[in-house]
Amino acid sequence: MPSSVIARMEYDQAKEILRIIFLSGNIYEYLAVPQAEYDAMRAATSKGTYLNVHIKGKYRYRKVA
């Protein structure tokens, strides 16, 4: 199901970086995110809700753009 806030997600397995590209154009990278967490987010019905509940506030991040 398409997200109302997330345009795309990318994951760098070697570096454990989850990159979230928002529909607004903002890009954030979440650091040290395990593969299992990324897989769970991909499988979630609501990507935005999963991000808010399981990623934000639990992993360090940096704004890319």
Please tally the helical runs, counting DSSP H or I stretches of 4 or more residues: 2
Low-confidence spans: pLDDT under 50, at least 5 residues? none
Radius of gyration: 11 Å
User: Oligomeric state of the chains?
Assistant: single chain
- The SSE string, one letter per element, is EEEHHE
Morphology: globular
Task: Characterize the structure shown.
InterPro entries: KTSC_dom. This is KTSC domain-containing protein. Pfam families: KTSC (PF13619). By secondary structure, this protein is α+β, with helices and mostly antiparallel strands. It has one domain. 28% of the residues lie in helices and 32% in strands. The chain has 2 helices and 4 strands; from the N terminus they run βββααβ. It has a 4-stranded antiparallel sheet with strand order 1-2-3-4, with helices on one face. Strand 2 and strand 3 form a beta hairpin. Helix 1 packs antiparallel against helix 2. The protein is globular, with a radius of gyration of 11 Å.
Provide key terms for this protein:
65 residues, KTSC domain-containing protein, KTSC_dom
Provide a brief overview of the structure.
With 65 residues, this protein is an alpha+beta fold.
In terms of topology, how is this protein built?
Blueprint: E1 6-12, E2 17-22, E3 27-31, H1 35-43, H2 47-55, E4 61-63
Helix pairs in contact: 1-2
Protein name: KTSC domain-containing protein
Domain KTSC: 3-59
